[in-house]
Amino acid sequence: MTQFDIHVFMAGVRREAGELHLPRRSLRLIWHLLQLQGEVFLKIAYIQLLGREPDPAAVEGYQTRSRYTLGRLIIILSLLISPEQTRIPHWLRRGIAWLRG
To answer: Domain-by-domain residue ranges, the chain?
Structure first.
């Protein structure tokens, strides 16, 4: 099994984002969030994506997953499509539509 390489992944995201005309600041936010780990990652991701601090249950539930880049990416996507999200960012809506074909 091949190891997940964040640099290769983000290069693919940047290439595809260019095709979708996604805002570069959204990609920068995801890139910066992926560089963080643990409670710092969770706190900043919640503040940036949901506008609030994570509750203790979220910290406990996501703590292990936030140690790994792929886990952090899953958390970010979960927050972006959360029912708590007041609106799905336009760039994500276009990305989801593109992925669905």
So the answer is: 6-100
CB atoms within 10 A of CB 36: 15
Q: Which amino acid is at 67?
A: R
Greatest distance between any 2 Cα atoms in the chain = 39
pLDDT tens digits, 32-65: 888 888 888 898 888 888 888 999 988 888 888 8
**Amino acid making up residue 44:** I
**Residues 6 or more apart whose Cβ sits within 8 Å of residue 54:** 42, 43, 45, 46, 62
Is the pTM higher than 0.90?
no
Instruction: Give the C-alpha separation, 75 to 50, whole Å.
Output: 12
Q: What percent of the chain shows pLDDT beyond 90?
A: 3
